[in-house]
Amino acid sequence: MRLSDKQCFHGDLNMINSANSRRSFIQTAVGGWVVSASLTSPDTRADQAPQAARTANPISGDILRTSGRLSEDGRYLLEQERPIPIAGTTDVLVCGAGPAGVAAALAAARAGASVQLIEVAGCLGGVWTAGLLTKILDAENKSGIMAEMLQEFSDRGSEVAHQTGGTVYDPEVAKLVLEEMCVDAGVRIRLHTRLVGAVTDERNCVVAVLTESRSGREAWQAGRFVDCTGDGDLAAHAGCRFDVGVGAECTCQPMSMLALLTGVDPQDIGPYIRESGSGAKTRLLNLMEDHGISPSYRAPTLRHLHSGIYSLMTNHEYGVSAFDADAVTEATLRARREIHEIVNGLRKIGGPWKNLSVVATAEQIGIREGRRIRGRYAITAEDLATGLRHKQAVCTASFPIDVHALSEHGNKEVDRDFRKNGSRPYDIPYPALVAADVDGLLMAGRCISGDFIAHSSYRVTGNSVAMGEAAGRAAAVSVQQNVMPHELDWSTVKSL
Ligand SMILES: Cc1cc2nc3c(=O)[nH]c(=O)nc-3n(C[C@H](O)[C@H](O)[C@H](O)COP(=O)(O)OP(=O)(O)OC[C@H]3O[C@@H](n4cnc5c(N)ncnc54)[C@H](O)[C@@H]3O)c2cc1C
Q1: What percent of the chain has pLDDT over 70?
Q2: Ligand 1 near 460 CB (within 6 A)
Q3: Which of 179, 206, 203 is nearest to 195 (CA)?
């Protein structure tokens, strides 16, 4: 299956490279700034370099220089136009390689599509790995890629991973398993690369995305795109409408940093380990409070992963916007400091805790909520209350409504008010994965279309993987059948 010019993509390489065609073709959703550059080389001073439209050379370290001027009010830098090299053209491009993105890329590749997977972190897995999550929820009732991954995490993991059917997993094992699965399926992986723009054509179809990385600014063309960035970056750049949080203030669930610990014997601290029963969190909180430790998350969770390694979640960062880099930075510094303070405090208790120490804190603070992109169906609290059954169900979610405390006030574990209408197992409909405002774009994972309460349930990773599998497969089939994703019926696609 190859990209056809009859399909969504409306320009070929020559069109992109031709300034005239580009003017009629590209509408960038990132503010319309255009950029220009000259090329430097080791023996040429940057300001002497010719203006030729050469590409950067990653071997020699050559770069495309940016030039620009300040706006009159001095508030902006106006970049000048520069040619952006086309880094790749595939049938399907998946952005974000968390649980949803890996599943989307695998499903699309296995359905015969050429697939590019783009990820800003240095590993696949998202919150599973860069976020050091260690527990997969709502996965036991899933088949397909989720079941395959659990089997791998269990077979290649520790005794604990084996006993839990892979739902408590080692993040390092997960990194390797996901890479191997993607490589085996023929997925082209690009790490360390952030999506920074998306381009639509005159039919409002997504045709290319822009990224920044060590290789500079690059453009990637594809027939279909799948936004698995968690925060809905691709869709937002493409101009899609979205919702954030709840209420006029767009209040989001708190962020949390996770950590790996070592230095304790599981036999000695058994009652505090989450898998020992539901009372473990309260026992750990009481232990902390008895020794003057007051964690910002009131349901501290300690999991035993393998041999002497544990994972800890005991931090809440309230009122932080996922789109404010300064605020996320401050939250990250605060969270890391809190983890170390708590571990130091526990170590001072002595006894079985006397050698407790931090092995690693997550490189990426855990972001529970970003954009919820408007799709062709929006999953609502009402759907959860009534246990929605939908003829285009991609999976059934059974995880309950789970809204962590929205502010420090009261310092509660979860806000139970949001649960008042209850929830029953409900279907996630395929149209909730299809962008409403542009063509050629699907979403999977926590950025799909739904309301604040529904999101608090479907966001967990067992569902994210199932959504990713459906979105990837639909993206591939829609290229194959030369139809838009919204023209597909999931009940037909899944039986192909
Ligand atoms: C603290 C915390 C605890 C949680 N606990 C659990 C739990 O115990 N079990 C469970 O199942 N779920 C849990 N969840 C929920 C779950 O982790 C997320 O909802 C889930 O990871 C969603 O999967 P995803 O693939 O949509 O997003 P993510 O895992 O967030 O993956 C998104 C990926 O996209 C990448 N990305 C983002 N923007 C860009 C960009 N512009 N360019 C390139 N790449 C980009 C990110 O680096 C990341 O790898 C928890 C979440 C948090 C934050």
Answers
A1: 88
A2: yes
A3: 206
